[in-house]
Amino acid sequence: MENLLDGWGITLATFSPLVGVAIMLLIPGEREERHKVVALATSLWVAFIGVLLLLWFDMGETGRLQYVVDEMWIDVIRSRYLVGIDGMSLPLILLTMFIVPMCIIYSWNHFPEPRNPKAFLILILILETGMIGTFVAQDMVLFFVFFEIVLLPMFFMIAVWGGDDRRYASLKFFLFPLFGSALMLVSFLALFFLTGAESFAFTEVADNVLAHGVSRTAQLWIFGGMFLGFGIKVPMFPFHTWLPDAHTQAPTVGSVILAAVLLKLGTYGFIRIAIPLLPEAAVEWAPWIGLLAVVGIIYGALGCLAQTDVKRLIAFSSVAHMGFVMLGIATLTDFGINASIMGMVAHGLITGMLFFLAGSMKDRYHTLEISRLGGLLVQAPRMGWIFGICVMASLGLPGLAGFWGEFLAILSSYSPANGLPVETFRTFMVVAAVGTVLAAGYLLWLLQRVAFGNPPEEFADNPEIVDVTRHEWMAWAPILALIVAIGVYPNLVFRVTDGAVDASLNDCLQVNTAELTDAEAEALGCAAVYEVGSGGGHDDHAAAGN
Amino acid sequence: MTLIDIVFLERARPITAAVAGLGLLATAIPLLTLALDGSDRVMFGGAYVVDEFALVMKAIFILAGYVVILLSTNYVAEGEYWENEYYGLLLASLMGMVMMASSRDLVSLFVALELLSIPAYLMVAWRKRDIRSTEAGLKYYLMGVFASAVMLYGMSLLFGVSGSTLLTDINSVVTAGGASVSVVTLGIVFVVAGFGFKVSAAPFHTWAPDVYQGAPTPVTAFLSVASKAAGFVALLALVFVGFYGRPEVWEPLVWTLAAVSMTVGNLIALRQTNIVRMMAYSGVAQTGFMIAPLAVAGHSTALGDQALSATVTYLAIYAAMNLGAFAVIISLARRTGSAEMSSFAGAFRYAPAMTVAMTIFLGSLAGIPPLGGWFAKFEVFRVLTSSGDTWGYALAVVAAVNAVIALYYYASVLLRMWADEAPDEGVADVTLTPSLLSALVICGGVTLVFGVLPQVVARFTDVSLLALGG
Fold first, then answer.
1. Closest to B411 (Cβ–Cβ): which among A76, A174, A192?
2. Residue A59 has pLDDT above 90, yes or no
3. Measured between CA atoms, how close is B409 to chain A, in angstroms?
4. Domain that holds residue A520
């Protein structure tokens, strides 16, 4: 197929924001309007390329990397500039390209103190480069570089434009993920040398892991390093403590980008790198990941019930939602990982939206203490309704985007991949289902306290409390439309992701052991850990019969 | 032919800073011709060698020296110090370093070391009316002499067993193992410890904070980059040419030095309130990173080569980013008159460009991509993990943890500069002198280019000493 973007489309999309930054550096800081226009134009241009990438994406072969560019980058360490998009990364890339312009539109008249739109917008654009780059990179070193690039701009966004406790929060935000990624880098290198790979390309390292038979102990350790790197970023319980602080202190737009995209870098790392490269270690780790995921679900939900601040509550709900995503991943099934990608997209849109709303409320009420708020529906009915829709979406109401990620993740843990303990995962399933009930509890409680009732006296006649403004509409309407669209027709996402997820998983994880004769199982040559053939499969079968 | 470097330096003994700088740049010309020529030159029976390694290090010294001159220009001129002598001493010290890069003999190493150290003792005490500067000079002198004595003792032991001062001869004796093991071990330990002082590796680092704080800031920059690099050159030459046959002696020693330097340097740096002192401790930690690859260098010659180029890469990038950080400190301190961290508060409000520059340099020191430092750290990790043994992995993990600790204090400084309110009184515009500006541009450009296209630096630092050590 003729394809105009082959060879340079991704590069253009990744580095266009930096061109915008260069232009903005040349414009003096006082000319705020120009900065806004340049930043918005850049982000829309990137989104436009994103649309083209989507249109020309070959939906018949989502499992294949498309728009691939493969150039030597650092010869001495055999690292390549290898980028490409497949069905797993496409939804997340589009999410990034979509959220950033919305953030810029939202900021138009809302620059948090100490203003300085120039610096603020430059940081957003640098962030965009880092985020897109992480999703397109297909080389471990390149991935690492982009993975780290996002840290600095977000650090400054929190540190300069954040709330009262911004110093503490921004340092914590910086240090936790960096600790993980340092160990992640060591893991990458260890993997590279143990496999004797010729380059850091994901596919090649994955092939070499299978071919060279890296020892099990080494695999487990290396997976452990990656687990720390990605798990802290997600963040999984018990590494989540940086998240509520960062979210609460970050400026609105910072929270939105953090929730919508940055958290996904961690989960994306699991499904793109850790699991495809080390499937055997993944089987050993998966029950523990699943355990931490459900602990996160319950802990996040209980944490929410204890919060007095709207933003902090939403942050804890993020911990719970990412728990669902991780549970889907931990099943190591095609089904579960599709659900988790859906969960990522949905969480990005919904929680991003909730943070926008929280920011707008803060602008109006100058407080986010739940106990002081109330009567939003009376004073700003449209905003109240939007808030209601988002809360419903977040608690997983069918028909809105949040439902598919959570529901399918729970469903997928009914029958995890070969080699995983079925009973354990069914227990997780039950606990996660309890988690959804708790989620409904805290979110409805939030909605009731904030939106219902009469406005409290202190805000009753406050002229600052107005309904949704034009800029807010422009930023929010597209997000709301997508939340509904995906909720009604989830195939929008699944159609893209399914082929890629299937391709990324090891065959031994997915083969149906019940229908396999022993001879066929032998022929697959799966490692003992998958429990395919020679007795392992029968256990599964027996368990399934219970 | 090989002495052209020195001749040029002598001729460049200047009246003004400009002449010094130009002379230094002129010195780079024979360097280029030698590099293009490509063949190794050996003089004095192997005591003085010009090979790729020597040329790369000479280039680093000369460029670093040039930047230091740029940094010094206004500082020295405005402080009513002895200007001409200052540059004279600086160049003399640089000459010692340039010699050091080529020395492959205990005696020439020692002579070069003293040549670079003695002017440095004087320069540290240059602000003679300031008691801190005088104290720093005295301290540096006493500690330096003590270290030299220890080193000299070690050298005499090595000479005693091998009967030669040539490093290649020492290597063959050491490898053969005929000589008394304990004597050889003591000799190696003493010599390494002596240079450990020079590179300010823990536990030989105690002089650094006081000296760095007391010395004029450009001199501090000089010590922390050029003088440290010189110590490394000697250490590398000794390890790779002199002692390579006995890794079981120096590998554990280097391993310990690396781990202790990283940890001690970082932990103490956390508590500093003066930015120069903080840079001193961070320098100790960076030293730990730089010697870490040597801890596995003895496993095989291939690994040895990689370890060498990792250390040289780190040195080159470190020189750029550390000098850059000092350039910002000097520029900002011109306005505030103090190097206390609190006086940097809110710099983003009144000096955004400086703050961005400082962000680049400190971010690079912390190893955040795409700034140069990441590649340096990456190379260290790469060598440590490619060794494939437990000790290598253990040191890699220690380094990884330390990278995070280091980020804490770098980020704290940045936080002050970006997030704090600027003090109201005395807010004047920061005037950047042309020389400081060009220093910043050089360092910033190098830091960024090395980060985005590491191939550029890797091509130059892909050097080997082992072929020579044979």
1. A174
2. no
3. 10
4. 511-546
Please give the span between the terminal C-alpha atoms of chain A, in angstroms, as a whole number: 51
Residues A298, A191: one domain?
yes
Q: Are residues A388 and A479 in the same domain?
A: yes
Give the length of chain A.
546
- What 8-state DSSP symbol labels residue B295? G
Please report whether residue A1 resides in a domain.
no
Give mean pLDDT, residues B119-129: 83
Which 8-state DSSP code applies to residue B100? H
DSSP letter for each residue of A30-68: T-HHHHHHHHHHHHHHHHHHHHHHHHTS-GGGTTS-EEE
pLDDT of residue A13 exceeding 60: yes
- Whether the pLDDT of residue A434 is over 60: the answer is yes
Q: Are residues A449 and A537 in the same domain?
A: no
Pairing, β A79-85 against β B41-43 = unpaired
**Taking residues B270-293, what's their average pLDDT?**
89
Burial B207-225 (b: 16+ CB within 10 A, else e): bbbbbbbbbbbbbbbbbbb
Residues A216, A293: one domain? yes
Residues from chain B that touch A112, judged by Cβ atoms under 8 A, are none
B38/A245: higher pLDDT: A245
Contact criterion met (CB < 8 Å) for B407 and A166: no
Say whether B180 sits in a helix, a strand or coil. coil
Please tell me the predicted confidence (pLDDT) of residue B3.
Answer: 46
Tell me: pLDDT of B6 over 60.
Answer: no
**Separation CA A256–CA A355 (nearest Å):** 6
Going by their DSSP bridges, the two strands B48-50 and B41-43 should be labelled as: antiparallel
| Tens of pLDDT, residues A116-166 | 888 889 999 999 999 999 999 999 889 998 998 888 889 888 888 888 888
A516 in any annotated domain: yes
Cβ contact A155–B400 (<8 Å): no
Query: DSSP string spanning B374-387?
Result: HHHHHHHHHHHHHT
DSSP character at residue A71: E
B314 touches chain A (CB under 8 A): no
> In this predicted structure, which of B286-300, B391-405, B447-461 has the lowest mean pLDDT?
B447-461
Q: Is residue A3 part of a domain?
A: no
Minimum distance, in Å, between the CA of residue A132 and any CA atom of chain B: 15
Token pair recorded at residue A360: 């707008």
Please state, in angstroms and rounded to a whole number, the distance separating the CA atoms of residues A324 and A235: 12
A170·B419 Cβ contact <8 A? yes
pLDDT band at A3 (very low <50, low <70, confident <90, very high): low
CA distance linking residue B222 with residue B120, whole number of Å: 9
In 3D space, the residue among B259, B265, B267, B270 whose CA is nearest the CA of residue B282 turns out to be B265
Per the listing, tokens 């006296």 go with A457
pLDDT at A91 over 80: yes
Confidence tier at A353 by pLDDT (50, 70, 90): very high
Per-residue pLDDT at B470 exceeds 50: no
CA distances (Å), origin A269, targets A193, A230, B209:
20, 6, 42
pLDDT digits (tens, 9 = 90+) for A305-329: 888 889 999 999 999 999 999 999 9
**Cβ neighbours of A190 in B, within 8 Å:** 385, 393
pLDDT at B32: 67
Do A528 and A477 sit in the same domain of this protein? no
Comparing C-alpha atoms, which of B258, B264, B262, B267 is closest to residue B295? B258
- pLDDT confidence tier of residue A530, bands split at 50, 70 and 90: confident
**How far is residue B86's CA from residue B68's CA, in Å, rounded to a whole number?**
12
If asked whether residues A125 and A213 sit together in one domain, one would say yes
**Pair A496, A381 in one domain:** yes
Q: How many domains does chain A have?
A: 2
B140 touches B205 (CB < 8 A): no
Whether residue A317 lies inside any domain: the answer is: yes
